[in-house]
């Protein structure tokens, strides 16, 4: 009799997490390492501004007896992304899971952001994932299996308070990219899961390190009618969250996704203690996606299956009626 797959121990995975110097990334790197995986906490400027975080990761690994490592990776540079993935493969010989976590938040009236500032938010939150994908996916496709985890935001489909427009728009774009990638990678045996955190006003550096627009004149014009709005939003979001809404809940969700049996991972997981409505909207959107792919005869793209090795072909799909 075959064993229940849920009772089979999860094999150790080699995992790369972008933006893992602090916040969700650092918490998730530690949680996944405690779960028995080899984890590369990727961050930029490891010899400079993040040197203390590199040291802290090393100390954590030694103290807890886990395989937590760091690697230099700046998602704004294709050269850096290529070098980071090459280093991981050289050191471990494999890569199983890529977690897209790097992101940057900005606050302020949308009009006050210059086009260049808006593009910079997209560069980190959206284009950065593409750079890392182009570095990692050739390996995952060649081996015929893997997992991409995208750390999104309930702002893509839930409640959207003002003064966060560039960040919200970028996270929505990243979500759309993740959804498209899911179908395009399924026949290579590469799974996709989107972890969707809600508003956590503590335990991360989103608000502390957030950027602001440069156009002071426009900011002053908006302050005449929206004075104190940013502080008001922060206070109200904090008040909505239950007392036990800790950012570590996101890390716990990531561990559950990675440790789930291959082929049975959820497409989307919400971690939203405040309940801003995103889960309800996403449930409809994901159902419509599944129904549409089924209607056009591409329902096999809804579930990744182990792929053939590089150079081998899938059996031909049945002809359309």
Structure overview:
With 321 residues, the protein is of the alpha/beta class. It contains nine helices and seven strands. The chain has a seven-stranded parallel sheet, with helices on both faces. The chain is globular, with a radius of gyration of 20 Å. It starts with 13 loop residues before the first strand and ends in a 26-residue tail after the last helix.
Write the layout of secondary structure elements.
Elements: E1 14-17, H1 23-34, E2 38-43, H2 51-64, E3 68-72, H3 78-92, E4 97-100, H4 115-143, E5 146-151, H5 165-185, E6 190-197, H6 216-226, H7 229-240, H8 248-259, E7 268-271, H9 278-295
Parallel strand pairs: 1-2, 1-4, 2-3, 4-5, 5-6, 6-7
Helix pairs in contact: 1-8, 3-4, 4-5
What profile does the largest beta sheet have?
7 strands, parallel
Biggest sheet strand order reads 3-2-1-4-5-6-7
Kindly state the number of beta strands: 7
Strand content is 5-15%
Total of DSSP H or I helical runs spanning 4+ residues? 9
Between the first and last Cα atoms, what is the distance in angstroms? Answer: 39 Å
Described by its quaternary structure, the protein is: single chain
Helices and strands: which structural class?
alpha/beta
State the gist of this model.
With 321 residues, this protein is of the alpha/beta class. 45% of the residues lie in helices and 12% in strands. The radius of gyration is 20 Å and the shape is globular.
